[in-house]
Structures are given as structure tokens and as C-alpha cells.
Design a protein that fits this description.
By secondary structure, the chain is of the alpha/beta class. The protein has a domain of 166 residues: P-loop containing nucleotide triphosphate hydrolases (Rossmann fold), CATH 3.40.50.300. Helix content is 35%, strand content 27%. The protein has 10 helices and 10 strands. Strands 6-7-8-3-9-10 form a 6-stranded mixed β-sheet, with helices on both faces. A 4-stranded antiparallel β-sheet has the order 2-1-4-5, covered by helices on one side. A hairpin with a 2-residue loop joins strand 1 and strand 2. Helix 3 runs parallel beside helix 6 and helix 6 packs parallel to helix 7. The mean pLDDT is 93. The structure holds adenosine-5'-diphosphate and magnesium ion. The site of adenosine-5'-diphosphate has 11 residues, from strand 2 and helix 1.
């Protein structure tokens, strides 16, 4: 088997004296969709930010292996990681609210050089997200929460991700919009986009992913095939009971 695209070994991340990640290890192979699930405050966003170069690494290491080469996360900037194809869809979407849908896509597209002209790239994205095409001249700030999440995903996809990091795409969305967003994520999975997703919506994330890890207070407390975790009595009791549905 080929070496993993992403290999994380005993990664630690701290905010001053607060250790938010206390040594997590995992890897992702090309084409896999892997979920990291856990409650609010478990350290999910911290992990995503560290992997995309937005937070310093306090211990351990993370390596990205893409056709452009091998990069040591923590030693290179966020911009360089994005140019190598590690694309982060942040918690809270991160769209530019005062710019149109099209301007948002253009600014994203400029991050990663590509021989394809913008108009062709944007057309390919609009085929996947027809609603964004209808809204292409509207301000991102005027889109619904679900449409903003689609735009945030589109901003990453327009750059042909080697690996997509998706942070809590269901946050603040109705069950119906959550379902729509996860449908797009399933299409990406089926087309072979390597994806790491973190979610509080454990049920949805386990239905999407092939493998999963359960994060609690900065460490993994369980891991395995997503379908097995979804039927594990301890996971069902802790994360899939009443109030955690949709
Ligand atoms: N900027 C920050 N400064 C200090 N502590 C933080 C900061 N951001 C997050 N934390 C703490 O780190 C822990 C993990 O947070 P986070 O990664 O946001 O969790 P999750 O995304 O799983 O909800 C929490 O205890 C949180 O309070
Ligand atoms: Mg978070």
C-alpha cells in the first residue's frame, strides 16, 4: 500500500498552559473519508487548525504527502499547505460576507495556481452546486446558512483538494439543510476526494465516513470502522442517544 497522505503522530497543541490536544495519532490514505467525532470542547477545531497550519504544533508531528512533495505540518505556513492541496473548510464557514458568491470563488481559486481558466473551474463547481450558480451575483452574507456552507465547500473544491478538512459543517443548520450538506459530502466521498471531517453530529458523521475516531478532552478514546462505532453500545449511549439526532 502507498504511504498515507496524512500521517499524524502523537500530535499536541496547546493554548498557553491549556493542552487542547494531548497526543493524537492517526493517518489517512488517498480516497478515504475519515471522521473525528466528539462533544463540544473535545479539541476538534484545534486539530483542524493545527493541521492547516493556523496553530503551532506543541509536540509530536504531522506529515502531508502529496504529489507536490512531503511537507512537515508546523514547519510550513498555512498558505503553503493550501497551495499543496490541503484545503480547510473552517467552522463557521469563513466566507467573505461583503463579496458576491463569484468573488468568493475567485479569491479562493487564486490561492492555488492552476492551468485551467477561472471560468472553466467555476462552471465545474456550479455543476455540483447549482444553487450557487443561481446566486452567483449575490453577496455571500445574504445567503442562507446552508448555502453559505455550500459556498465554503465550493471555495475548497474549486482548488481540486488533495485532502479536504471539513470542520463541523452541520453547525447551526436545520436538519433539512444538514441533510443537503451531507449529501454533497457523500458525493465527494464517492468521487474519491480524500476527506477528514470533524463533527458533533456523530450520527451523520459515522454514516458518511469509512473510519472514525472518537475524541474526548484532547485524546482518542475509540476508533474503528464507522459502522462498528455506530453500533458500539458505549458510543450509542454517549453520543447517539436522545438529543443528538438529526
Ligand atoms: N483560543 C483559545 N484559547 C484558549 N483555549 C481555547 C481556545 N480555543 C479553544 N480552546 C479550548 O481548547 C479546547 C478544545 O476546543 P476546540 O478545539 O474548539 O473544541 P471543539 O472544536 O471540539 O469544540 C476547549 O477546552 C476550548 O475551551
Ligand atoms: Mg469546533
Amino acid at each position: 500500500m502507498s504511504a498515507p497522505i496524512l500521517e499524524v503522530t502523537q500530535l499536541q497543541v496547546a493554548y498557553g498552559a491549556i493542552k487542547a490536544l494531548r497526543g493524537v495519532s492517526f493517518s489517512l490514505r488517498a480516497g478515504e473519508t475519515v471522521a473525528i467525532v466528539g462533544a463540544n470542547g473535545a479539541g476538534k477545531t484545534t486539530l483542524m487548525k493545527a493541521l492547516s497550519g493556523m496553530l503551532p504544533v506543541a509536540g509530536g508531528e504531522a506529515r502531508l504527502r502529496v504529489p507536490a512533495g512531503e511537507l512537515q505540518i508546523g514547519s510550513v505556513g498555512a498558505h503553503q499547505l493550501a497551495r499543496a492541496g490541503l484545503l480547510h473548510v473552517p467552522e463557521g464557514r469563513g466566507t467573505l460576507r461583503q463579496m458576491t458568491v463569484e468573488e468568493n470563488l475567485l479569491l479562493a481559486w487564486e490561492i492555488r495556481p492552476c492551468s485551467q481558466p477561472f471560468e472553466a473551474a467555476v462552471q465545474a463547481v456550479f455543476e455540483r452546486f447549482p444553487r450557487l450558480n443561481e446566486r452567483r451575483t449575490q453577496l455571500a452574507g445574504n445567503l442562507s446558512g446552508g448555502e453559505q456552507q455550500m459556498l465554503s465547500l465550493a471555495r475548497a473544491i474549486i482548488n481540486r483538494p488533495q485532502i479536504l478538512l471539513v470542520d463541523e459543517p452541520s453547525l447551526g443548520l436545520s436538519p433539512l439543510l444538514t441533510q443537503e450538506v451531507f449529501k454533497v459530502l457523500a458525493e465527494l466521498r464517492d468521487s474519491g476526494v480524500t476527506t477528514l471531517i470533524v463533527e458533533q453530529n456523530v450520527r451523520r458523521a459515522l454514516a458518511l465516513a469509512q473510519r472514525a475516531y472518537v475524541l474526548a478532552q484532547g485524546v482518542f478514546i475509540a476508533e474503528g470502522p464507522a459502522s462498528e462505532l455506530a453500533s458500539d453500545p458505549a458510543i450509542v449511549a454517549g453520543y447517539l442517544g436522545h438529543g443528538s439526532a438529526h
